[in-house]
Request: fold
Amino acid sequence: MAQAKTNAMRILDAKKVEYEMLTYDHKDGKIDGISVAQKIGKDLKEVYKTLVAQGASKNIFVFVIPVAEELDLKRAAKAAGEKSMEMLPMKDIQKWTGYIRGGCSPIGMKKEYRTFLDESSRGLESMVVSAGKIGVQIVLAPNKLQEITKAEFTPVTK
Reply:
């Protein structure tokens, strides 16, 4: 059965960005980044999760970091020019992004939020991010993701 294109994939297609789609079985409920990396057979250093946070100004920010790492909220706040930063509550993810937990892609959110790619992705040939649906990932070049999302490369992990 062919996998339907996600909004993120349609955006990449429209901008003629090369990517590869990977799918994994999520019926076991294991949708955390480390489990996903194992299921798709990729190194943890290549698989990234999309985190959404809110600054003291109430502005929303997107951080794309390796799945085995933790977002450093102080570094994140500094990068965004905010006094402080806190993770957006899970219940608010869909309201702000249009995506659900485990299927949040940095591409194609409801609005274009200021996005930060962890510095670690800069040296990679390719990276894996959510395609915007649980069970579907996309592999693309970090510089292409940076172009599409207008992201800034900066160290934001602990």
User: Anything to note?
Assistant: The chain has a mean pLDDT of 95. The two ends are 41 Å apart (CA to CA).
